[in-house]
Amino acid sequence: MKKFILFLMSIIMIAYLITFGIQFLSDKGLKEQKNSIYADWNAILEGEVNAVIVINGSSRAKFSYDTRSILKETKLKTQNLGFNAGGYNLQKSKFEIYLKNNRFPKVIIQNIDLANFKESKVLPDEDQFFPFINNPEINKLISKFDHKFSYVGYFPLLKYNQNFSILKTGLVENVSNQLPAESLCFGFSPKKQSFKLDLHNFDKLKSDVEEKEKVNARNQARLNEMIRFYQTKMNKNTLLVFVWAPEYKERLNIIYDPLRNPLIKQLKAIQEKNKNIFFIDFSHDVIAQNSDYFYDSFHLNAAGAKEFSGKLGVAIQTILRTNTKKE
Length: 327
What we know:
The protein is α/β, with parallel strands linked by helices. The chain has helices at about 1-30, 35-45, 60-65, 65-75, 90-100, 135-140, 165-175, 200-210, 210-230, 255-275, 300-325; strands at about 55, 80, 105-110, 240-245, 275-280, 295, 300. InterPro entries: SGNH_hydro_sf.
């Protein structure tokens, strides 16, 4: 009986080591997949980014702020931390993880809009974290959304359950270079899509207008909270730039002004009171008139992102030049 138990334990141990080895290789392959979300996170966690300009926000940041165009105009290394479908809380958490592992940026660009102040209740695109589940900073973040992440790291391959294609991608990446499903450039994800009107987003806007007092109070409180969050981390030379990116013209209808105007007024007041905080409003830029620059009313496509980010880069360079003269 004793021999049988030892034999059984040895089988379990061998199986554990084999499955752990498979998981290790898959994790390694994903982390090394060029231009992927996994390589992007790995660079952040390994402290390999250290950008001078950092962009924060949700999908609007990720898909609309072309790091290449901003770099071209400013000649400064730029990283996009945009979190697809990530609410205010996730944006904050990703920025904090970035700061723990990388040098503090000189310029923080925070995308701002009417959808920016909602909190994420669920973790979007959770597979982006699979190779990093055992990283304490990542685990602390994702465990807030799903308790399973507090234990799946102890069981090899469990995190890839029902995600075999991701496991396979990681394994194959060890022997060949596959293009990722979503190709990133310093965190920026270009969308080569044609325009399609997103009626569901207009329904959300109309619903918010009906509850404008409640929504405006939340937005303004969250903006003040955001300012405090950044100010506790900024030094005297850090510049915080709030940017309202272009939106398709149908979103600029005056019926939404009761939501937009109080926020813009607050941003302008904050800029007046703080010499290192700026607000740039591109919402009504000429880009807004042309659907060729958007893939929906809220997001720029690759062509729109390039055009907008070039203009933003020029504006940032002007701020930096003016600020240097003042010093």
